[in-house]
Every structure is written in C-alpha cells, then in structure tokens.
Amino acid sequence: LGGSIARALQQMSNATIIDEKVLSECLNEISRALLQSDVQFKLVRDMQANIKRIVNLDELAAGHNKRRIIQQAVFNELCKMLDPGKPSFTPKKGKTSVVMFVGLQGSGKTTTCTKYAYYHQKKGWKPALVCADTFRAGAFDQLKQNATKTKIPYYGSYMESDPVKIAVEGVETFKKENRDLIIVDTSGRHKQEAALFEEMRQVSEATKPDLIIFVMDSSIGQAAFDQAQAFKQSVAVGAVIITKMDGHAKGGGALSAVAATKSPVIFIGTGEHMEEFEVFDVKPFVSRLLGMGDWSGFMDKIHEVVPTDQQPELLQKLSEGSFTLRLMYEQFQNILKMGPIGQVFSMLPGSSSELMPKGHEKESQAKIKRYMTMMDSMTNAELDSTNPKLFNDSRIMRIARGSGRSVRDVMEMMEEYKRLAKIWSLAAANAQADRRHGRSS
Ligand code: GDP
Ligand code: MG
C-alpha cells in the first residue's frame, strides 16, 4: 500500500503543471491503494471529494513540496474519519461499570474480554469476567482458562442455558463484591442472524451495561461496514476494538467500523497473548495505513531505546540523512543491549517484521551478531561510506574471508543495510519536512 501511494505522490511531484487532472490522477491512485487496504468504497469516494475541495490548486502549483501537501491532506482526512467526534464512555477506577462485549463468533471477543480485563487489572483495577455465552460448547471453559491464567475472578455455568439469567447473576454477584469493571462476554454466531441479535438485546436490557464494545476481526475486508452497522442497529454500541491486527490485515476496516457505529476504536488486538493489546491511537494508525511510517512513534522509540547521551548525535545524523554501516553497527549494539523489544526500527514500515519477526527474537539476535562480525572485518572507509556501490566483488570477498562467512552472507547483510538506509532516508525526509512546517516531532 505504502508503495503505491508513494508512487502516486512521486508522479505528482514530478509533474511540472499541477492541474485538476494531475490531482485527480494522483487521488485515484491513492484511492486504489486505500481500497486494497480494505477501506470501504463509499468512504474512499467521500475522502477524495473532500480533498479536492480542500486542496488549493494554486497553492499546490506554487508550493515546493506538493507531495507533502497532498499527503498531509489525505492524512488529515483519514484522521478525521477515525474520529467520531465524541469520546466513548470511559469506566472509572473504583466505580462500578458494566461493559458488554458483542461481535461475531471467532472475532476474538472472549480473548479480548480477558485482554481488556488484564489491561485494567495491571493498572490497579478490580475487574471480573462473566461468561454469557451458552451457545458454543466450550465457551465457559475458554473464559475460565483465560481468567485463571490472569487471576481474574469469573462467573459462568455449565448447566444453565439461559444467557440472560447467567449475565444478570454474574453482574449482581460482582457488584456485591465491589468489582469496578464487570465484563460480560456474549455468544456469537457464524452469521449475523436474528437469534443472535435478539439474545444480545435481551442481555443488554437485563444487565444495563454502561458501555457496549463491538469486537471486529480486521481481516473481514469490505464486509466491515455492514457487519458493524448490523450490530449498531441492534444494540447501543459505544466503542470498537479491532482484533488480529498482527496478521495480514490491512486495517482499513477500522474506518468502516467507526463510520458505521459512530463510535471510536479504543484498542487493537495484535496477537493471541494477553499482552498483545494496544490502546488505539489515530495518528500512528493512519501513518501506517498510508505507509508513511509511524514518525512520532519512531521518535519516541529513539528516546526510549537510545542512551540519552547518544540521542543528540543520532538525531543530528538523522537530519543529515546519511545512514552508514557504522551507524547500523551502533544501532545493532543498542538493540542487543535492550533486548528484542528495544528496537529503534520497530515502528517503521517493513523493518521489524523482517529483521525481527515476532517469536523469532533468538534467531534475530543471532543474525544481528552475525552481521556485526562481518562489519568487524570492514575498513573504516567502508563503515563510513554511504555508497553501497563501493562494495565491489573483491571487497565483498575480503569481508567474507575476514569474518569467516560466505559471500552470500555478506551480500545478505548489504541488502539489509540498503533496506534500513532507505527507511532511514524516509525518516530523514519526514524530519526535514516537519522542521520546515515548524513542528517539533
Ligand atoms: P470469540 O468467538 O469472538 O469469542 O473469539 P475468540 O476470543 O475465541 O478468538 C477466536 C480466535 O482468534 C482464537 O484462536 C484467538 O486466539 C484468536 N485471536 C483473538 N484475538 C486475536 C488477535 O488480536 N490476534 C490473533 N492473531 N489472534 C487473535
Ligand atoms: Mg467467545
């Protein structure tokens, strides 16, 4: 996605005359990319129309950075689309709130209920889980297992088949125990069918939740809008959680869910484990959707990972835009020191997934160490060069021999270097553009 948007913007900035036609072509290209990213057709069309209204062609023709202007306009529009204008109900610690989860079977409700409870528990809340899914065999066992693992009190039954009755009993029990976050997990069906919606309505009427959270699987593609709308029409959905953002999902469904429910996305699920749960943040999300890289996240990471005394130097290097092998070496040292989570590059598109795929941290560390051994066999001139062409066959062979690795290993490392250098120059360009626009981060 990022690639085709970048391409469209590149073509646009190469054009000498920016007229209606050039802008339209550029927006068409961006729209195609957004559609591929599962943003709903109607939303894309609206965005396109809005941008045509906002962008001033004269200013664009005169401006130095046409790309930046269009990119910023698309960015702002998408951010606006993710903001329904009012925040969702937010439970307060120490006060009893009932939160009901709804969504299709398999969307990740039960997992997300526990993640949500666990997230709050870590912040000192006293959450509790109620299993009102009597439809699926094994539903109570699953919730019980999750709850036991995270030491969260739970309520449910193997015998009772009436979800409304269990929901009410569970909520009453935990209210008496002064639990401040009572979470009701409901059943789902494979389809959006009448029986499911009727059951949801009854549970909602009986437990009077303060907040109803709609859980949606991010991989459902263009179906997102209709599904979200169907739930909103049956119960008073007040917030959305998007799950499975770790897979191949492209995330465009989030825009549909917000548009259909007029409710904000509050969290995203990024894996099966309890910790793989993040507060939803509009700007980084849109940056990633547009393939711009999470710029502010990148700066935060630098501050978090890089030792304080090295930060000014690193930022200076970023502003110069040159990414040398020596710089890569130093960053690898930081990464190894901080462990797999302390990764400067993890927020940037296309980096962490390849250099450090989740669950393969050990292999990644070994790979980084291997790269560093090869770099140890480089000359100072090589380490300080920004020109990959310097590395001709004889240099590559010398480095391989010197480090006891194969020529292929050295070439692989050089590919990795080129990839990171590209990301680095993208980040540098963003930093420069931000400075021109007087922004600080
Ligand atoms: P429910 O039927 O809506 O209650 O869905 P479950 O909570 O049982 O989840 C269905 C499947 O999706 C399970 O295998 C979960 O482990 C998995 N799952 C839930 N959330 C996520 C997520 O954020 N990422 C990934 N990769 N898997 C998830
Ligand atoms: Mg479930």
Describe it.
Keywords: Cytoplasm, Endoplasmic reticulum, GTP-binding, Hydrolase, Lectin, Nucleotide-binding, Ribonucleoprotein, RNA-binding, Signal recognition particle. Belongs to the GTP-binding SRP family. SRP54 subfamily. This protein is of the alpha/beta class. The chain has 3 domains: 2-81, SRP54, nucleotide-binding domain (Four Helix Bundle (Hemerythrin (Met), subunit A)); 97-281, Rossmann fold; 295-436, Signal recognition particle, SRP54 subunit, M-domain (434 Repressor (Amino-terminal Domain)), CATH 1.10.260.30. 56% of the residues lie in helices and 9% in strands. The chain contains 20 helices and 8 strands. It has helices spanning 2-14, 20-36, 41-54, 57-62, 66-81, 109-122, 139-149, 163-176, 194-207, 224-234, 253-261, 282-289, 295-305, 311-320, 325-338, 352-355, 361-376, 380-383, 393-403, 407-436; strands at residues 97-102, 127-132, 154-155, 181-186, 211-217, 239-243, 265-269, 277-279. It has an 8-stranded mixed β-sheet with strand order 3-2-4-1-5-6-7-8, with helices on both faces. Helix 10 (224-234) links the parallel strand 5 (211-217) and strand 6 (239-243). The longest helix is centred in the last third of the chain and has 30 residues, at 407-436. The protein is globular. The protein binds guanosine-5'-diphosphate and magnesium ion (MG). Magnesium ion (MG) is lined by residues 109-110, 133, 139.
